[in-house]
Description:
The protein has four domains: 12-27 and 186-330, MoaB/Mog-like domain (Molybdenum Cofactor Biosythetic Enzyme, Chain A); 29-52 and 149-183, Molybdopterin biosynthesis moea protein, domain 2 (Alpha-Beta Complex); 57-145, Molybdopterin biosynthesis moea protein, domain 3 (Molybdopterin biosynthesis moeA protein, domain 3); 340-411, MoeA, C-terminal, domain IV (Beta-clip, Beta Barrel). Helices cover 18% and strands 31% of the residues. The protein contains seven helices and 26 strands. A six-stranded mixed sheet has the order 7-4-6-5-9-8, with no helix packed on it. A six-stranded mixed sheet has the order 16-13-17-21-20-18, with helices on both faces. Strands 22-24-23-25-26 form a five-stranded mixed beta barrel. Helix 1 runs parallel beside helix 6 (311-330) and helix 3 (213-223) runs parallel beside helix 6. The chain is elongated, with a radius of gyration of 31 Å. The mean pLDDT is 91.
Amino acid sequence: MTTDIFFQIVTPDEAMTRLFDLLPTDPQTERVGLHDALGRIIAAPIISPEDSPAFARSAMDGYAVRAADTYGASEGLPAFLTVDGEVPMGAAAERPLQPGTAQLIHTGGMLPPRADAVVMVEYTQPVDQTSVEVLRPAAPGQHVIQAGEDLAAGDELLPAGHQLRAQDLGALAALGITEIDAAVRPVVGVLSSGDEVVPASTQPAPGQVRDVNAITLSALARQAGAEVREFGVAPDVRAELERRTRQALNTCDLVVISAGSSVSTRDMTADVIGSLGQPGLLAHGIAVKPGKPTIVALVDGKPVFGLPGNPVSAMVVFGLVVAPTIRRLLGLKLNEEPPQRPARLTRSLASQSGRIDFVPAVLQRRHGEWWADPVLGPSNLIATLVRASGLIRIPLDAGGLAEGAWVDVETF
Length: 412
């Protein structure tokens, strides 16, 4: 640990710039089948190997026709066509359409040779078993999905860094792509510390608190796309904190330690992290409330974070520094903003220039407008976030916000 880093406050952006300048930009990859690919991150662009659809097909139930045979048709003077059979579903339509004829066709059926339009069945009227009246004219290409209309061979279907959704998997299946190269999920080690912290399954003694952060931070890491390993609660003993941190570094790609990051004689996290490898501490203290006593470090190529012990602070800071790092390791685009909803403040909020403030808020609908009602309370009360709809971000040098002002609420 160097004296020029220890609790010298920097902005979250500056801390992440220091870290990302030292991290690789290309994720590790693995081959994944479609059934296991939902939510995975594509490591390389996916190019269509063929046209989709591969043939011209009907978009409606009706009759395949030559559009010219229907010109001028109306209910008062319909076009009379001979029905020349039915297009078989699931098989090639091989019989060419002759002038003055139509073939019955179903949605998805292959357009017969020489046909260039489909008349919806609603706009026809059967005369007998072998003929039909067309009550409206058809234009060339009407109700026809052309070959390659959805996607042409050689087109980029999905870019690298894209997170796969259900509809993406359907498109891949339609092209016969059953496996993709996905970014390997980073493994995040979660370690709590503090003599007063006990597992959530334990009945706390007087002066003790249950470990909230292990649960919330692990859930946030999984939500961000990582796998998680938990390393329990380390007591305020330097040798034990160092042992567990080394164990996490040896088996994980990224380590998150909660508590032990403030300027206190009993808090050893910064000293332990700084002693484990190079380059060590990159930032100790960020200009954020809640969450100021945050550590950002890199130990022999692996990111390490020391988060405040207060649950609200830990969750806010996780979203600022840990989640973007997980996205970086996955190859995701980093400029994606969290979902936001504009709303008006129900009360004024003070803030200190030179730092970013986050305030939990409940969103309420009033007279056709969204209003943000701040949920005020200490950062060690996790229920403030349970009641909240999201977080109001007060910019670095705003100096506070007035009642009625428009703000963006970063929704959970």
